[in-house]
């Protein structure tokens, strides 16, 4: 999830090699449930995204944003790490750099 107030919250979800990008609309709907529970429903605009840099085979294992939500590190099961630049104003996700690593063993999280 990429939140940069006062802009709407964006999210990027990856399942294997398919990316879905979304944007939280400005309004939210509220519905009172049984008891004192309150469910909040956000109106989400979903966009299926095909990025030219995305691998077509295998799957992405890890996706980690930096603290300012301006870059993403992606780890693919082909031992490829990709650095993606995010331009939230234009909804651009640009490949800045990619490189291969020797082994995947022990990599569970990418750190900045």
Short description:
This protein is mainly beta. The protein has strands at 10-15, 18-32, 38-49, 60-65, 71-76, 80-87, 92-100. Strands 4-5-6-7 form a 4-stranded antiparallel sheet, with no helix packed on it. Strands 1-2-3 form a 3-stranded antiparallel sheet, with no helix packed on it.
Write structural notes for this entry.
The protein has 112 residues and is mainly β. The chain has one domain. Helix content is 0%, strand content 55%. It is built from no helices and seven strands. The chain is globular and about 40 Å long.
- If you compute it from the alpha carbons, what radius of gyration comes out, rounded to the nearest whole angstrom? 17 Å
Strands of the largest sheet, in order across it? 4-5-6-7
Helical fraction equals under 10%
Beta content:
over 45%
* Order of SSEs: EEEEEEE
Q: Strand tally, please?
A: 7
List key phrases describing it.
112 residues; mainly beta; 4-stranded antiparallel sheet; 3-stranded antiparallel sheet; 0% helix; globular
Secondary-structure blueprint:
Elements: E1 10-15, E2 18-32, E3 38-49, E4 60-65, E5 71-76, E6 80-87, E7 92-100
Antiparallel strand pairs: 1-2, 2-3, 4-5, 5-6, 6-7
């Amino acid at each position: 999830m990429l939140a940069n107030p006062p802009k709407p919250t964006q999210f990027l979800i990856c399942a294997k090699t398919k990316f879905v990008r979304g944007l939280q609309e400005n309004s939210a709907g509220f519905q009172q449930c049984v008891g004192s529970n309150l469910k909040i429903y956000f109106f989400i605009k979903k966009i299926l995204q095909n990025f030219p840099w995305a691998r077509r085979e295998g799957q992405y294992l890890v996706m980690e944003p930096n603290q300012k939500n301006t870059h993403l590190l992606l780890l693919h099961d082909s031992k490829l790490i990709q650095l993606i630049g995010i331009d939230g104003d234009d909804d651009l996700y640009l490949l800045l750099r990619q490189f291969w690593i020797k082994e995947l063993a022990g990599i569970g999280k990418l750190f900045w």
